[in-house]
From TrEMBL:
It comes from Chitinophaga terrae (ex Kim and Jung 2007). The lineage of its organism: Bacteria, Pseudomonadati, Bacteroidota, Chitinophagia, Chitinophagales. This is Uncharacterized protein.
Length: 183
């Protein structure tokens, strides 16, 4: 049995833009070269070509409803913290998924944040085996301006910017201790 990867994202956006994003309906993903290139470089047990049928958004009235749904599942360790001073959203699912097909709607959700965010080179999203000590990197999303891109070249956490990886690991560790306290 595989162990679920963790997801972590840091996104800079104003409070107003964040509220607008939360109120908006989920944006469906569009099959394009970025999705296809990323998909084709992932290691899977049963690889198949990515098709439009594989791409889907969550079926929810709003992006806020998506986050609320994840928050209700206490086993995932979902959190989202908005820092008004730094205008930064830190979002994570401590126990997310190891299945690329299951990841697609959340990746679509994260990618759709690009049109709302500020232009900040520190923004990123990572899906990796935080708790399991593996070096494999499932997903790395970069943001430039108001666009986001699934990185098809990175395969290992060792290839990541060490400062961004440390930020993600430290944040996930702190939130895990809060959400799943040890006696």
């Amino acid at each position: 049995m595989s162990e679920p990867n963790s997801l972590f994202a840091r996104i800079h956006l104003s409070q107003e833009r964040f509220e607008t994003f939360l109120a908006a309906p989920p944006k469906p993903p569009v099959l394009d070269a970025n999705w296809t290139n990323w998909w084709n470089t992932r290691k899977m047990y049963s690889p198949h070509p990515l098709s439009e049928n594989d791409l889907y958004a969550y079926n929810a009235a709003s992006n806020k409803a998506i986050l609320d749904g994840w928050m209700e599942n206490k086993n995932t360790g979902t959190f989202y913290d908005y820092d008004e001073t730094g205008q930064t959203l830190n979002l994570g699912l401590i126990f997310f998924s190891e299945n690329y097909g299951e990841m697609i709607p959340m990746l679509s959700f994260i990618l759709s944040l690009a049109e709302y965010k500020e232009n900040n080179p520190d923004d990123f999203c990572i899906v990796f085996p935080f708790f399991w000590g593996d070096e494999d990197l499932s997903v790395y999303i970069t943001f430039e301006g108001n666009t986001a891109r699934l990185d098809a070249e990175l395969e290992s956490v060792a290839q990541l910017d060490p400062a961004k990886l440390k930020y993600a690991e430290d944040y996930l560790q702190r939130k895990a201790a809060e959400i799943f306290p040890q006696d």
